[in-house]
Specification:
Elements: H1 11-30, H2 33-45, H3 52-56, H4 59-67, H5 78-87, H6 95-98, H7 103-111, H8 126-144, H9 148-164, H10 170-178, H11 181-190, H12 202-217, H13 228-260
Helix pairs in contact: 2-4, 2-8, 4-8, 5-7, 8-9, 9-11, 9-13, 11-13
């Protein structure tokens, strides 16, 4: 049986409780039967595979491999995932590099089946690194079954720290955020951007994101998120705006019901 995270309250209240209990709850989740079983199997067998095809044909291995990158929903798309892995991440025309969602490039790069020098799945520390990523993302997923906004917040804290420390250029950092659907959701909600915002050209989107962040924090670059305080600020803004949006939707619904009753 998988441990079910405890969520108390909503919005900032739920976030505060989760921050205080995160370590204990994550440990309980990692040691739950199903999670431990899958992770132990992955550690024992990932080094035995010889190709991307071997990986996609072993559902238990693939469950952990995809889950470590938040790509769980692709578990049945074997040909698609096999192509992602075999084409790798180094060629500009590789499928992973042609997709807007940057998680596919990270996935292909981590395994390196189609990359010069790869694959990497037999190197020391690989299985442990996948274990850490899998536990983090699957715990977030379990939390999201009770409160989706908490899942987005937890993901943002982890992802922004990684991106800020990547050493990439300011524009590259922003395009990474813009190409990551969960992260993009956090920023769009925090800044109150409309649903049609994503239809604008990329340069216009980048300028808007950058200017809105500068107004909020005094700094328009993603590199600031090496700071815990900066990450907390954007997450708290996201949760606050989410609560406001929920209240607005609920109020609109109540007004509609009232009008219909006359």
């Amino acid at each position: 049986m998988t441990y079910q995270p405890i969520v108390v309250g909503t919005g900032l209240v739920a976030w505060g409780f989760m921050q205080r209990t995160m370590e204990t709850q994550t440990e309980a989740f990692e040691n739950s039967f199903i999670v431990k079983r899958d992770l132990d199997y992955f550690a024992e067998n990932i080094g035995k595979i010889e190709s991307a095809e071997d990986l996609v044909n072993d559902r238990q291995l693939l469950t952990v491999a995809l889950g470590a990158f938040g790509l769980d929903e692709d578990i049945n798309s074997k040909f698609f995932i096999k192509t992602i892995l075999e084409e790798g991440s180094q060629a500009n025309d590789a499928l992973a590099n042609r997709l807007a969602d940057t998680r596919y490039r990270e996935f292909a790069e981590a395994f390196g089946f189609g990359d010069l020098g790869g694959p990497w799945h037999k190197t020391p520390g690989f299985a442990e690194n996948m274990r850490e990523q899998y536990v983090a993302r699957q715990f977030e997923r379990a939390v999201g079954e009770q409160d989706e906004n908490l899942r987005f917040a937890m993901n943002a804290v982890r992802e922004l720290d990684d991106i800020a420390l990547s050493g990439s250029s300011d524009n590259t950092n922003w395009f990474t955020v813009m190409g990551n659907p969960p992260l993009r959701r956090v920023f769009e909600t925090a800044f109150g951007l409309p649903s049609e915002f994503g239809s604008q050209d990329l340069d216009s989107q980048l300028n808007t994101f950058r200017s809105r962040l500068e107004k909020l924090t005094g700094d328009g670059e993603i590199s600031q998120f090496v700071s815990t305080e900066a990450r907390d600020q954007i997450v708290q803004r996201f949760l606050l705006m989410s609560e406001i949006n929920n209240v607005s939707v609920a109020s609109s619904g109540q007004i509609a019901l009232t009008l219909l009753s006359y």
